Amino acid sequence: MTKLRNSLNARRARQETSLISFIMAGLPNPQLCLDCIKAIEQGGGDALELGVPFSDPLADGVVIERFHHRGINAGLNLKHSLDFADKVRQAVNIPLVLFAYYNPILQMGMEVLAQACQAVGIEALIVPDLPLDEIKQVHTDLEFIPMVAPSSPDERLDMAAAMNPSFIYCVSVRGVTGVRSLPEDEVKAYLQKLKPKTDAILALGFGISSPEQIKTFKNSADAVVVGSYLAQIMEEYESRPQLLPTQIEKAIAALKKPCAN
To answer: Dihedral of the CA atoms 29, 30, 32, 37 (nearest 10)?
Structure first.
């Protein structure tokens, strides 16, 4: 079993909610990004999704979309993100997941990517624009994390469950990432429908930005994913880089409190 799977399952066994953070690889700049990742670990983050800048990030809202475009304009790509992941692996011990759209992966080649990920300690891959039925046709030792949503039919939920992943990324709403209020009853209903189908960790993402939201969904989801909220903090404090890591650590620590209670 991977460190990712072991870590998430151990927290669930202790009736804790895991906190998974998303951050765009190498932005606002490599050193500041690395400092923020260290702060995520210091604050209590349990796993990290590293995003790869892409020109057409269909699943991402306006805040993270700005980071995608900044990365593209700076010449960052999948190879740069993997190089950066190697530095991350040397700096922190939390499990790493790569979040990348499919076109750059197709250009690199899945087997080449799988070998590169294993070399830098990336344990799993999220590809938001690769359908689940096509994931099954990709032969690689690298684990895929499936994504489902409230609109997913039972067939798609069954397909995600059959993959037996370290976690299933449960999108909270129909739409893109971003800080927002969440439809509590709808989210809980579809998580409850998915739970009997799988022993996998259910990680709720898209819109998680407060301790109150985590408290609301703590008994329905095994983990939460936080991305746009952290991106907003990075934008707010980028002009004061000496303060940014501390603000990230404080935000993670605040979100972590209800995870353990």
So the answer is: 130
